[in-house]
Amino acid sequence: MLIRSLPTLLIGAATLALALPAHAGKTLDAVKSRGQLVCGVNTSAPGFSAADSQGKWTGLDVDFCRAVAAAVLNDASKVKFVPLNSQQRFASLQAGEIDVLSRNSTWTLTRDASLGVVFTGINYYDGQGFMVPKKLKIDSAKKMNGATVCVQSGTTSEKNVADYFAANGMKYKSVVFDTAEAITGAFFSGRCQVYTTDMSDIAGARTKAPKPDDYVILPTVISKEPLGPSVRRGDDEWFQIVRWTLYAMQEAEEYGLTQANVDEQKASKDPTVQRLLGVSEDTGKLLGLDAQWVYRIVKQVGNYGESFERNLGPKTPLQLPRGPNNLWTKGGLMYAPPIR
Predict the structure, then answer these.
(1) CA proximity to 241, closest of 15, 13, 16, 30
(2) To the nearest whole percent, how much of the chain has pLDDT over 70?
(3) What is the predicted pLDDT for the residue at 4?
(4) pLDDT tens digits, residue range 113-136?
(5) CB of 339 within 8 A of CB of 244?
C-alpha cells in the first residue's frame, strides 16, 4: 500500500479545491432568476452612458453592463439601465436596487472601504480639469482666482477643486448642482465662469454647447480619477464575475479578438486564444459560468478597444485619444491579469 506524505496530500487537496466550480453567489442567483441584469448608469454622460430619443442607451459604461449580461445571461440585451445622479449611485447599490454600478465613478479608499461597496477594476483613467468661455481669455487654471465654479455635488470634484484653490492661494465661489444636466445648463447660460469635472465629462459637456468653439478646455489636470464599476461588498462570487468581465474585454483586445473575427478565431492554434474562447479549457466553471463566457462578450459587445473607439475615440464627437487607456503593450495602463 502506497502511503503519501502529509505535504503531498495537502498539495493534492489544494489543487482539487482550486479546480472545483465556483459556488453561485446570491447576486448571480437573483440575476439568473429574473433573467435580467439591473445596472446603474449616469443620467447623461456622453461617451459613458446616455439614452437617445428612443430610450436606447450607449456608452463605455453601458457596453460594460451589456458585457456582464452576455457572460451571465447569454444575451447582452438583457439589461435594465437605471439612471442615477452622483448622490444616488452608491446608496442604490447598497440597497440592492441595482446589481452593478457602472457610472464613471472614481475609485478612492474612502469609497472602497466605507460605503459597503467594492470596486472591481478600472475601465477609464481620467483626471479633473476645467472648461471656461473662450471670451474670458484664461489660458491657465492658476488665473482663475475669484472665479465662480460650477461643480456637481457628491463627487470627488468638490474636494479636489477646494484643495486646488487652497494649495494655490486662490479663492472661488462654488455653485453646486445634483446632475450633469443641471451643471451644463447653468454653465452655458453664464451662471458660472468655470465648469470643473473629469476631463472626459468636460469633453462630453462641450459637445452640448450651443457653440462648442466658444469654450476652451484648459490643459491643467489636478487629480487622478481612476473610473470603474463597483458591486456590493460581501458577495465574492459576483465580484469575481464582474471583475473578470472587464479583464476579458481587455485581454480580448490584446489578443486581437474582435466582434468581426471571433468566430473564425475559434480555429486559432494560439493556446491563449483557445483558452479565452473556451475551446481548450473551461475557465467559466471557476466563475459559475460556462466555457463560452468570453466568446459571448466579444461576439455581442466587442473588446475594450472597440468599445472605446465607438464611444469616446477620435471618430466620435468627444474625439478622445486612447492615451493612458491604451493597452500596456502600446504605452497605456490597461493591463489585464492572465485568464488562465
Answers:
(1) 30
(2) 93
(3) 46
(4) 999 999 999 999 999 999 999 999
(5) yes
Which three cell numbers mark 88? 444616488
Assess contact for 197 and 42: CB atoms under 8 A: no
Q: Tens digit of pLDDT for each residue in 67-119?
A: 999 999 999 999 999 999 989 999 999 999 999 999 999 999 999 999 999 99
Delineate the domains of the chain, giving CATH numbers in brackets.
22-125+226-315 (3.40.190.10), 128-223 (3.40.190.10)
Compute the Cα dihedral for 179, 185, 190, 191 and give only its sign.
negative
CA distances from residue 302 to 68, 132, 276 in whole angstroms, order as listed? 12, 36, 14
Three-state DSSP string of the chain = CCCCCHHHHHHHHHHHHHHCCCCCCHHHHHHHHHCCEEEEEECCECCCEEECCCCCEECHHHHHHHHHHHHHHCCCCCEEEEEECCCCHHHHHHCCCCCEEEEEEECCHHHHHHCCEEECCCCEEECEEEEEEHHHCCCCHHHCCCEEEEEECCCHHHHHHHHHHHHCCCCEEEEEECCHHHHHHHHHCCCCCEEEEEHHHHHHHHCCCCCHHHEEECCCCCCCEEEEEEEECCCHHHHHHHHHHHHHHHHHHHCCCCCCCCCHHHHCCCHHHHHHCCCCCCCHHHCCCCCCHHHHHHHHCCCHHHHHHHHCCCCCCCCCCCHHHCEHHHCCCECCCCCC
pLDDT at 21: 55
